[in-house]
Design a protein that fits this description.
Structural class: alpha+beta
Strand content: 25-35%
Length: 330
């Protein structure tokens, strides 16, 4: 694992790569009491050429830097931290699975370690990075659609809040809602926001809708980065790919649950899917809203677009297609 200590008096200490071990923290450490902590999620992939690659890692560093600033944790050099992570993966490269269905998950974490009680800026902090191999998201080898609960009683994030930052405090409170979704026969939560019941995220993923819009155009829609949406690396990559194809309209805009249900009723929705580091893309098959279940025809339509996105991104990640998005580690 990688550890880097910081203190107000001494600044950043030298990074250390040490054997995986427990942390020793003062019981009053600010991360334990006031949630002054954040994290990132990245992966390393062993390619068809046996070289190991990361995937757009600087986007993770930039997001982590923004989260640190919002958390009042000390800022860091993004390029230097990425080089430390690259070195950690190089040291641990035998943990990167020899498989094109698996990868090495990388979890950079940043915590305030102020050893005293009090809601204030931490005078001490710690960055640590742990890694571990992970298998395929869909263990059967094929896409399995998920069912969603959309209940406006539950809110993930709000304007002026911290929904756009990858802080642990955004995730813990969602567990009870996820459990509620399971009780109601669903697998994930479709998070709604505001009086208009805007569609925001699905579970811990960004949401995409591929449809024929009211003008008769094929269009890919995802909610905008308006402060309540996490700027996902996979989200950005799907938008960049779709715009490079230039085959259909690509739009970042607000959409309400009413608009989605109207399009479903009119037969204009083709595919709905989530996007994130864990799954790349995850198709949505149904939606439970105000006691009624709505079927979404994602799987009946292939899902051609979701599968194309999945293939193009994994081709880059595993070196089947050369791209500057996938820098070599070793």
């Amino acid at each position: 694992m990688l550890t880097i200590n910081w203190s107000e008096k001494g600044g950043w200490e030298a990074p250390r790569i040490v054997p995986f071990q427990n942390l020793s923290l003062h019981p009053a450490s600010s991360a334990l009491h006031y949630s002054t902590e954040l994290f990132e999620g990245m992966k390393a992939f062993r390619g068809v050429d046996n070289h190991i690659r990361l995937f757009r890692p600087m986007l993770n560093m930039e997001r982590m830097h923004r989260s640190a600033d919002r958390s009042c944790l000390p800022l860091f050099d993004k390029g230097e931290l990425l080089e430390c992570i690259r070195k950690l993966v190089e040291v641990d490269q035998e943990w990167v699975p020899y498989s094109q269905d698996a990868s090495l998950y990388i979890r950079p974490t940043f915590i305030g370690t102020e050893p005293s009680l009090g809601v204030s800026r931490s005078s001490e902090a710690l960055i640590f990075v742990i890694v571990g191999p992970v298998g395929p998201y869909f263990t059967t080898g094929s896409f399995n659609p998920v069912s969603l609960l959309a209940d406006p009683a539950f809110v993930r994030a709000w304007k002026g809040g911290v929904g756009a930052y990858k802080m642990g405090g955004n995730y813990g409170p969602t567990i009870a809602v996820q459990n509620e979704a399971v009780k109601r026969g669903c697998q994930q939560v479709l998070w709604l926001y505001g009086e208009q019941e805007e569609i925001t995220e699905v579970g811990t993923m960004n949401l995409f809708i591929y449809w024929t819009n009211e003008k008769g155009e094929r269009e890919l829609v995802t909610p905008p980065l308006d402060g309540i949406i996490l700027p996902g690396v996979t989200r950005q990559s799907l938008l960049d790919l779709a715009r490079s194809w230039d085959e259909f309209k690509v739009t970042e805009r607000t959409m309400t649950i009413k608009e989605l249900l109207g399009a479903l009723d009119a037969g204009r929705v083709l595919e709905v899917f989530g996007a994130g580091t864990a799954c790349v893309v995850c198709p949505v098959g149904s939606l439970l809203y105000r006691g009624q279940t709505y079927q979404i025809p994602t799987m009946q339509n292939g899902p051609d677009l979701a599968k194309r996105f999945h293939k193009d991104l994994t081709d880059i990640q595993y070196g089947r297609k050369q791209s500057e998005w996938a820098p070599l580690v070793a």
